[in-house]
Amino acid sequence: MSLITWPHFAAAELRCRCGKCASTGAEMNPNFMAELVTLRQQFGRPMALSSAFRCPQHPVEVNKPAPGEHCTGLAVDVRCSGVDAVEILRLAMNLKFTRFGISQRGSARFIHLGMAPAGGRFPSPAIWSY
Ligand SMILES: [Zn+2]
């Protein structure tokens, strides 16, 4: 089995970072990743991910009533602020992303991009702040 690789995004950036699981980054949904690569190419500059795939035992997920969108391989958090955040949101809304979380306070600013199917467990389309 060959590991799928993506332009601009390394496996180390995509895999769960709980430090305990065997995640490789291959858990990311290929359709989601194709859209993320398109977004990165349109943005034209480096786009750092503060979080991508998370296993259900990841510290952020473990206390939730049910595993969140990151556990489906259909979500990332893009580290960004200021005009970059506006540009990434604008571009993402014109692509196939359907869920947008805006965290633009303090020093760890990011935008959550998700692609949950309509009628599923996660409201879609949706936008929220943290
Ligand atoms: Zn993990």
Runs in which pLDDT lies below 50 for 5 or more consecutive residues are none
From the 3D coordinates, which CATH architecture would you assign? 2-Layer Sandwich
Number of strands: 5
Number of domains: 1
Q: Which band does the percent of strand residues land in?
A: 15-25%
Q: Using only CA atoms, what is the Rg? A: 14 Å
Protein architecture, described:
The protein is α+β, with helices and mostly antiparallel strands and 130 residues long. The chain has a single domain (11-124), classed as 2-Layer Sandwich (Muramoyl-pentapeptide Carboxypeptidase, domain 2), CATH 3.30.1380. Helices cover 23% and strands 17% of the residues. It has 3 helices and 5 strands, in the order ααββαβββ. It has helices at residues 11-14, 30-43, 82-93; strands at 49-51, 75-79, 99-103, 110-114, 126-129. A 5-stranded mixed β-sheet has the order 1-2-4-3-5, with helices on one face. The longest helix is centred in the first third of the chain and has 14 residues, at 30-43. The radius of gyration is 14 Å and the shape is globular. It starts with 10 loop residues before the first helix and ends with a strand. The model has no long low-confidence stretch (mean pLDDT 95). The structure holds zinc ion.
Question: Characteristics of this structure?
Answer:
3 helices, alpha+beta, binds zinc ion, Muramoyl-pentapeptide Carboxypeptidase, domain 2, 17% strand, 130 residues
Short note summarizing the structure:
This protein is α+β, with helices and mostly antiparallel strands and 130 residues long. It has three helices and five strands; from the N terminus they run ααββαβββ. The protein has a single domain (11-124), classed as Muramoyl-pentapeptide Carboxypeptidase, domain 2 (2-Layer Sandwich).
